[in-house]
């Protein structure tokens, strides 16, 4: 599997570098868990505080059990492999390392409605193939009992990277390239991604073992790239539909459209949006939230002429080659076509979004533009050549959590340096 190693090592390094967060508790939000300063931290609730502070390379794929009593996550080991962990949702609880085969790098974990943990491990793969056969497994976290429930093909060999710490932060919040791998248990089967880059969706029938592609299949011999691939999928709260983005490559910018899939029939419906969707989240009553981003100029526009000149001298290329962005969040009703803007600002990206339990508040994470990073390089206060962990660069673009009411009220700050937030169910 050496063909996938460069991507996963880069990706896991990016995931492992965390900031020390400061929680301001200005935004009203239900209890949630997040990574802060490398520690799994519970914010709000009866016993807020650090749940577990392990020696680790990183924490990822943090998920609540359906009853909210337990948290499962993947702990990145020094060799960049994953270890499946569980811990009681109480400050100071002792984590439990589950005795499982090594989970596949990049794949998340999830719970079934009955409280079993779904995780993916490697199967048999021909040495000359870019399609790895992987196994879907169930784990009873109380008894340790495990069951293999199916296999499917998974395209490997992805590569690439970025010099931008804003990209590293976005990938921490979402997934490599901004496209998280999908793993969701539904009553129709296990919805999963089919490639390490997040493109391609399929539904594994647990009863029959049949893996059914949804849309154009990137690992099939007859795959047609011009049709685009489905990615960034989220399952509706009732488990009946999937919202996903069809990504069709073209220059200078890929075409991205919102697609709804009915899991019972497989029928797909295109949803017209005002702008290209980036990340998705379900609202109440069948509405959807989607983030947007637009280039707002080169990084030189955020620097003084002297800073721009020094930046180019140090980096060897002009700051104009790096972009700054404006971002926003919109809410669309597929039934009526109504599409309204909830929020907009100058920033690099919106990371995660989730509707709070009150049904009237959206929680979201945001990554700033590269302004401070560029200025720090130009002024000599940021020495990226000696920032081996990348933490100093990340500190210039902290992942920040906000809430916005759906009724048009004031956007409020929850805290900074809070990564991979997951609301208590």
* Strand elements, count: 29
For the residues shown, what is the average pLDDT?
Answer: 89
Unreliable runs, pLDDT <50, ≥5 residues?
Answer: 1-26
Strand content: 35-45%
- Major sheet, described briefly? 5 strands, antiparallel
Could you characterize what this model shows?
A hairpin with a 6-residue loop joins strand 23 and strand 24 (339-346). The chain has a 5-stranded antiparallel beta sheet. The protein is globular, with a radius of gyration of 21 Å. 44% of the residues are buried. The two termini are 37 Å apart. With 425 residues, it is mainly beta. It has helices at 5-16, 165-173, 305-315, 371-379, 391-394, and strands at residues 22-23, 32-36, 39-43, 49-52, 58-64, 70-76, 82-88, 96-97, 110-111, 117-122, 131-139, 146-155, 183-186, 189-193, 201-204, 211-214, 229-235, 241-248, 255-262, 268-271, 280-282, 288-298, 323-332, 339-346, 349-355, 361-367, 400-405, 412-416, 419-423. Helix 1 (5-16) packs across helix 2 (165-173). Helices cover 11% and strands 40% of the residues. It has 5 helices and 29 strands. Residues 1-26 have low confidence and may be disordered.
């Amino acid at each position: 599997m050496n063909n996938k190693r460069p991507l996963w090592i880069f990706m896991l390094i990016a995931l492992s570098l965390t900031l020390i967060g400061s929680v301001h508790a200005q935004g009203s939000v239900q209890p949630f868990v997040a990574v802060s300063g490398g520690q799994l931290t519970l914010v709000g609730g009866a016993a807020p505080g650090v749940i577990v502070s392990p020696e680790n390379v990183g924490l990822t794929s943090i998920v609540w059990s359906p009853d909210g009593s337990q948290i499962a996550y993947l702990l990145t080991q020094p060799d960049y492999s994953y270890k499946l962990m569980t811990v009681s949702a109480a400050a100071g609880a002792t984590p439990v390392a589950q005795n499982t085969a090594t989970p596949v790098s990049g794949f998340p974990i999830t719970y079934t409605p009955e409280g079993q943990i779904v995780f993916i491990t490697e199967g048999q793969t021909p040495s000359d193939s870019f399609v790895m056969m992987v196994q879907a497994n169930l784990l009873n976290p109380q008894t340790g009992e495990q069951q293999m429930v199916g296999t499917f093909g998974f395209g490997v060999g992805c590569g690439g990277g970025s010099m931008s710490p804003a990209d590293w932060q976005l990938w921490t919040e979402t997934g490599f390239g901004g496209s998280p791998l999908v793993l969701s248990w539904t009553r129709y089967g296990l919805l999963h991604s089919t490639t390490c880059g997040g493109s391609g969706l399929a539904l594994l029938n647990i009863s029959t073992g049949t893996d059914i592609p949804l849309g154009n299949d990137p690992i099939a011999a007859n795959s047609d790239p011009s049709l685009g691939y489905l990615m960034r999928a989220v399952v509706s709260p009732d488990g009946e539909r999937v919202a996903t983005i069809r990504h069709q490559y073209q220059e200078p910018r890929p075409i991205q459209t919102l697609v709804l899939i009915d899991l019972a029939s497989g029928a797909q419906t295109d949803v017209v949006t005002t702008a290209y969707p980036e990340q998705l989240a379900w609202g109440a009553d069948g509405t959807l939230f989607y983030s947007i981003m637009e280039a707002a100029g080169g990084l030189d526009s955020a620097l003084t002429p002297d800073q721009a000149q020094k930046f180019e001298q140090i980096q060897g290329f002009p700051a104009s080659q790096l972009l700054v962005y404006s971002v926003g969040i919109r809410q669309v009703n597929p039934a009526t076509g109504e599409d309204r803007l909830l929020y907009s600002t100058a920033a690099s990206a919106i990371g995660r979004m989730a509707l709070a339990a009150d049904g009237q508040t959206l929680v979201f994470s945001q990554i700033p533009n590269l302004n401070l990073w560029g200025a720090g390089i130009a002024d000599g206060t940021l020495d990226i050549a000696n920032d081996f962990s990348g933490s100093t660069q990340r500190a210039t673009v902290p992942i920040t959590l906000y809430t916005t009411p759906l009724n048009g009220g004031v956007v409020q700050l929850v805290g900074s340096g809070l990564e991979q937030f997951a609301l208590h169910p």
